[in-house]
Hints:
Elements: H1 7-26, H2 37-55, H3 66-89, H4 92-104, E1 111-112, E2 121-122, H5 123-138, H6 141-155, H7 164-185, H8 187-206, H9 212-230, H10 232-248
Antiparallel strand pairs: 1-2
Helix pairs in contact: 1-2, 1-3, 3-7, 4-5, 4-7, 6-10, 8-9
Amino acid sequence: xxxxxxAQQVFAAGLIFSRLGxxxxxxxxxxxxxxxxxxxxxxAFALTLLLFPLLSGxxxxxxxxxxxxxxxxxxxxxxxxxxxGILRLFMNSLATAGEIVSLQTTLSFAQTANPMQAQPSTxxxxxxxxxxxxxxxxxxxxxLFISAIVGSFExxxxxxxxxxxxxxxxxxxxxxxxxxxxxxxxxxxxxFSLIFNIATGLVGRVMPQFQIFFVATPLLVLLGLSxxxxxxxxxxxxxxxxxxxxxxxxxxx
Length: 253
């Protein structure tokens, strides 16, 4: 290897690849489960070669023993998993919105295979998840992912310890914000469902003999999905803006 790269350069490239590989394996859009792991790691390796001239100078000296070398690699893996996990957790906002809309429109029993998860989910949740992946590439959020990856080496330099406490707090905040955002995205359908159920309840009280269930259920599904379709544009705009704010946390220095 000395004729192609020094031991220090190989060590620096290995640290960069360790962090990038962990991030790419979890990154939304680029790190989905249906993409083979070899393809994701090959992309991380190519990205490492591109970023090596920019980041190699910040790498620490080569450790004298194997324990130090292994500890440095594990530390970069943990930081990469933290960043990729945070970006992945925010995708739960769309899944939450899909689950809430499904409950409000009595379609929660309709389950389908979710290519982004290891288990089936509601049809609307899967649909919103796929919409999120499309929006990531349509609005060039994937380019911000690259900026966040580069910025992470300034926020979390090689010489910095793994911020375990801060990572846990950030994960909790991300989960809370994603759930709140999912509730906000489903708000139009929630409001419609509340008004519709109150109206059908009043009709049922006024006309007890009327078979309100057989009339209300198809109308609830049809009108609820109509409201959901009309609000898709706003859902996409709000979600992209919130996701851009989250990515900006890793690009600020």
